[in-house]
């Protein structure tokens, strides 16, 4: 059960970004080179944006991060070409999600940290994503 929730949260992050602020379009039309992730609905006291180098993460399969919302509000698998909604569409404090993925911040941290810790513990430092740009 915990693994399932973790996977759901992991997919949630990239499924939709609060601030889908693409800085530049990737040449292969797989999204922007970089995405700025910042909560708009559940802004924390110290809301620092995270900078996701989207193009650098494209060695992963799209469905490793992206997913959709199916019947009854349940997570649905990513289908190539589907519209990518904002994460906060579902991951916000009013949507009734499980606590560990109930906000953009929680879902994002669960997704990113789980993967970064598996790759290299140095990637799990705050300053890796929360840079001073």
Helix/strand/pairing category: alpha+beta
**Low-confidence sequence ranges:** 1-27
Describe the largest sheet: 2 strands, antiparallel
Count of DSSP strands: 4
Form type: globular
The radius of gyration over CA amounts to 14 Å
Sequence-ordered SSE layout with sheet pairings:
Blueprint: H1 2-15, E1 35-37, E2 50-52, E3 67-69, E4 75-77, H2 104-119, H3 126-129
Helix pairs in contact: 1-2
Could you characterize what this model shows?
The protein has 133 residues and is of the alpha+beta class. The chain has one domain. The protein is 26% helix and 9% strand. It is built from three helices and four strands, in the order αββββαα. It has helices spanning 2-15, 104-119, 126-129; strands spanning 35-37, 50-52, 67-69, 75-77. It has a two-stranded antiparallel ribbon with strand order 1-2. Strands 3-4 form a two-stranded antiparallel sheet. α1 packs across α2.
From the structure above, extract its key features:
133 residues; two-stranded antiparallel ribbon; alpha+beta; 3 helices; globular
Summarize the structure.
With 133 residues, this protein is an alpha+beta fold. 26% of the residues lie in helices and 9% in strands.
